[in-house]
């Protein structure tokens, strides 16, 4: 055996690498990224970044606790994102509100007969595929109840 322990472990991992395991790894990475994005979005709703012209620096204001600090919030250190300034937050809110309240924003779409038929076919196929998947899963797995819990 000429492999080092690290190389041996790598080879063993590659041997046990299945498409299911690869799919799980991709899903885990995607969910981690989405979770972090949601966390950043939550933090943006709490913190404001405000410029102090006397110091020439930004300080951070927690809108819930009303505390201010010169240090960047822990979550944003090393993250490629930042908190909104009050002006940026106001602009973003105005854009959202104008999109919601726009006169033509809730106007129903006029479908041609062909577009409507294509759309209905797609919806039907998606529903059928979901039902097929559920029946396959039900055949493959059975629900188990733990009597002790």
From TrEMBL:
InterPro entries associated with the record: WW_dom, WW_dom_sf
Protein name in UniProt: WW domain-containing protein
UniProt cross-references to PROSITE patterns, sorted A to Z: IQ, WW_DOMAIN_2
Organism: Phytophthora sojae (strain P6497) (Soybean stem and root rot agent)
Segment forming the signal sequence: none
Domain WW: 47-75
């Amino acid at each position: 055996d000429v492999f080092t322990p690290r190389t041996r472990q790598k080879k063993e991992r590659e041997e046990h690498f299945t498409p299911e395991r690869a799919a799980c790894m991709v899903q885990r990475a995607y969910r981690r990224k989405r979770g972090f994005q949601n966390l950043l979005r939550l933090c943006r709703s709490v913190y404001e970044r405000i410029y102090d012209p006397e110091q020439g620096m930004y300080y951070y204001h927690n809108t819930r606790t009303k505390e201010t600090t010169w240090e960047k919030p822990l979550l944003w250190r090393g993250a490629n994102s930042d908190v909104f300034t009050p002006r940026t937050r106001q602009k973003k809110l105005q854009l959202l509100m104008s999109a919601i309240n726009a006169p033509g924003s809730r106007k129903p779409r006029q479908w041609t007969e062909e577009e409507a038929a294509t759309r209905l076919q797609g919806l039907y196929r998606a529903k059928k595929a979901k039902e097929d998947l559920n029946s396959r899963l039900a055949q493959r797995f059975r629900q188990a109840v733990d009597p002790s819990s």
